[in-house]
Amino acid sequence: MPESRQLPPNLLSIKNHIDSHGLGCVIMDDHVAVGVCEQCGEDGRIKEGIRRVRTFDEARLIIGCRCGLSEDGA
After folding, report:
1. For the whole prediction, is pTM greater than 0.85?
2. pLDDT tens by residue, 51-74
3. Superkingdom, according to UniProt (predicted)?
4. Rounded Cα gap, residues 74 and 71, in angstroms
5. Is residue 27 within 8 Å of residue 10, measured between CB atoms?
6. Is residue 35 situated within a structural domain?
7. CB neighbours of 67 closer than 8 A, spacing ≥ 6?
8. Does residue 30 lie in a domain region?
9. Which residues partner with 53 through β-bridges?
10. By C-alpha distance, which of 65, 3, 9 is closest to 36?
11. In terms of Cα–Cα distance, which of 49, 2, 11, 4 is closest to 29?
């Protein structure tokens, strides 16, 4: 049976917040992997990718969130 690991509380909070915005994400070791789609260049093509975030500030920047949350939950 696989060994159970305790997830870092800040990563779980980041994942839960990203989930609340309806975006796909998963905790991977020391970061949260977020699936993103971006419109690129003048032709407007869509680029899909995975971004790694380790803090609420990084997550807010990647997903465009303006919720005002900080890592300490304030």
Report:
1. no
2. 999 999 999 999 988 886 455 544
3. Bacteria
4. 8
5. no
6. yes
7. 17, 60
8. yes
9. 32
10. 65
11. 11
